[in-house]
Write a structure and sequence with these properties.
Strands 2-3-1-4-7-6-5 form a seven-stranded mixed β-sheet. A seven-stranded mixed β-sheet has the order 10-9-8-11-12-14-13, with helices on one face. The model has no long low-confidence stretch (mean pLDDT 94). The radius of gyration is 23 Å and the shape is elongated. It has helices spanning 15-25, 43-52, 71-79, 108-127, 177-186, 204-213, 235-248, 264-277, 318-331, 346-350, 382-385, and strands at 4-9, 28-33, 36-41, 60-67, 92-101, 138-146, 149-155, 195-197, 257-261, 283-287, 301-304, 336-341, 356-362, 365-372. By secondary structure, the protein is of the alpha/beta class. Bound molecules: S-adenosylmethionine. The site of S-adenosylmethionine has 21 residues, from α6.
Length: 386
């Protein structure tokens, strides 16, 4: 079977979470860079990675990796890629996105047109076609230039993988599904522990946690672009991945996951989103201000994304809001709390320095993931666990 090098991008700072997910799927990691993990696998890995990875935005096949600091080098490097091994004759192939960091070539549109010309030239030399017919399936490319090193990826996912298909309704500042999943997987939360999001908005944290608990693969309710690439990936491998995903779903899981928000409409939206994700029975959503946050049990987790002053007029309310969150957290017995926010004064108003703090880039926005660790629950005796 053909062996590919696959590339999966992730949020800067969360590479270790994606790396662990890929290893858990059984693939060998070949390289970890800022915001990207590379691994190897055959066509089946393309299907399984798209279906099961919760924390990447897309899965790409690496088709080229070369140095170019002039357009001539870019042309020759692109032309040298064995495109006919990846594309059928009638493929519609183009550079969908070019990103450049610290490189001599830095104009995306010029890079796009030069690479397109190079592919068409190879097509005419190898296949004797004066132009690419482009009447077939789409094979979009994503190109990264970093210090004049050009990496070329063939995008197998199509729509970003954060689009799981469940979040049709959302509020003003939703967190992406992939980032929410990565943050949950970064914490020690486990489905047998309580999870509460007091600022749940459209429900992303509770829904992602419930999907993890129920073993629902993130790609179960969507399609992937490479499903149409029968020249590279036999159809039965997609069916195998879907069967595997179906077999992993755990019915009747027992969890305590709750989502609250002050806005009644967004709570209804969260419920509808959970319904589409197939986890509505696993989450208790309720309209409730953070000032009323309480729980009778010990050792729970708050994982949340409070307002961070998205609108200037809201910024003045942040000290009171974060102070209230801190007070309610202290009133909970032996809980842990994890807060992602770009609000720089969060610790000051919460009233405690975080035990750990991780900088995470959410797109261009610098955010912090504050981790306030509570005690671990006592280990249950063997007979209790049986
Ligand atoms: C940044 S958004 C959370 C987005 C959410 N993570 C998502 O993916 O949709 C913050 C949320 O806090 C809610 N909120 C604002 N003040 C609140 C309060 N005092 N108590 C509870 N929720 C509040 C807002 O209605 C909003 O939905």
């Amino acid at each position: 079977m053909t062996e590919f090098t696959l590339m999966a991008p992730c949020h800067f700072g969360l590479e270790a979470v994606l790396r662990r997910e890929i290893q858990d799927l059984g693939y060998e990691i070949t390289e970890v860079e800022n915001g990207r993990v590379m691994f190897c696998g055959g066509p089946d890995a393309v299907c399984r990675a798209n279906m099961f990875l919760r924390t990447t935005e897309r899965v790409m096949i690496k088709v080229g990796d070369f140095h170019a600091d002039t357009f001539e080098e870019l042309f020759q490097g692109t032309k040298a890629i064995p495109w006919e091994e990846y594309l059928p004759k009638d493929a519609k192939c183009w550079v969908k996105k070019a990103s450049c960091i610290n490189s001599k070539l830095h104009a995306p549109s010029s890079i796009q047109s030069m690479m397109k010309k190079a592919i068409a030239t190879r097509w005419s030399e190898k296949l004797g076609l004066s132009s690419m017919p482009e009447t077939g399936e789409e094979y979009p490319l994503r190109v990264f230039l970093n210090r004049d090193r050009v990496t070329v990826g063939l995008d197998t996912s199509g729509d970003s993988l954060h689009k799981r298909g469940y979040r049709l309704l959302q509020g003003a500042a939703p967190i992406t599904e992939t980032l929410a999943a990565a943050l949950i997987l970064l914490t020690p939360w486990h489905p047998d522990r309580i999870l509460v999001d007091p600022f749940c908005g459209s429900g992303t944290f509770p829904i992602e946690a419930a999907m993890i608990a129920a073993g629902i693969a993130p790609g179960m309710n969507r399609e992937f672009l490479a499903e149409k690439w029968t020249n590279l990936i036999p159809r039965n491998l997609w069916y195998d991945a879907a069967d595997e995903a179906q077999s992993m779903v755990r019915e009747n899981v027992d969890v305590d996951i709750q989502g609250y928000d002050i806005d009644g409409e967004i709570v209804q939206a969260a419920r509808a989103n959970a319904g589409r994700a197939g986890v509505e029975k696993l989450i208790h959503f309720q309209q409730r201000p953070v000032a009323n946050l309480s729980h009778p049990k010990k050792y729970g987790f708050i994982i949340t994304n409070p307002p961070y002053g998205e609108r200037m007029e809201d910024r003045k309310n942040l000290p009171v809001l974060y102070r209230t969150l801190g007070e309610r957290f202290r009133a909970l017995d032996s809980w842990s709390m994890f807060v992602i926010t770009s609000y720089e004064d969060a610790e000051r108003w919460i009233g405690r320095k975080a035990d750990k703090n991780r900088k995470i880039y959410n797109g261009m926005m610098k955010t912090y993931f504050y981790q306030f660790m509570g005690p671990k629950p006592p280990r249950r005796k063997r007979e209790d666990r049986a």
